[in-house]
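Thread: Newbie trying to understand structure tokens

Hi all, I'm a second-year student working on a class project, and my supervisor (Dr. K.) asked me to get a predicted structure for one chain before our next meeting. I've only ever worked with sequences, so writing a 3D structure as a token string is new to me. If someone could post the tokens and maybe explain what I'm looking at, I'd be very grateful. Here's the chain:
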Amino acid sequence: AIFVQAFLAGVASASWLGATHHMQMSGVPSVRVTAWATWAEWRETYRRLFSCAASERALGVRRVQTWRSRARLPVAVDVTGSFVEVMLNDPELNPLTSSPNSEHELQLLYAMCVIRLVNGIVDVAQRARVAGSISVLAEELEWPRWFVELRHEATHQRLPTLHVLRLAAKEAVLLLFERFWRPQQEQLERRGRARVARLGRSVVSAPRVRDRRLVDRRLR
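---
Reply by user tm_fold:
Sure, no problem. This is what the structure looks like when written as tokens:
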């Protein structure tokens, strides 16, 4: 799909796929910088952000906050953390929240998440081609048009109702899961299987161990 191609493009410029930057210093090879220390850390955060337990999702949000202090995050990771954090403090979605926000605060927070989400999608498309209208670019990337309309309403008109913004947050998190987090996890699993296969071939083709009697004599 067109969206997935753009989604996975531009890894070296903090795009959707990964927060990787190449820092070039005089006389020093380029250094790759990532927000997460290992892919195991990324997988653990992914598991927590989409957990059924609010306490686990809160830990995922805290990890994303740590990543923000390390490097510029991909829009998908940053916005997922923002949506989940707002939803955790929404008493209708999380009745056990210890720090509920007022309805107006929630409207402002959800609206900002939607605006950043749509702007991030458009930025990816505009880096790959001549700038165009937001609605056209979002449509080419197969993102629901009503997100663009919601962004326009939140930016230039009255804030959308809290009910509509809650629906947008749920839909956005679902789409981010399906279009970024799960494809990335599947890509990591394919890489892992390929690595295991290569290791298996190298073991099969390894030179045979010398005669056991010679080895035993060396150990005496």
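A couple of things are worth pointing out once you decode it. The beta strands are 21-25, 28-33. The longest strand covers residues 28-33. Feel free to ask follow-ups in this thread.
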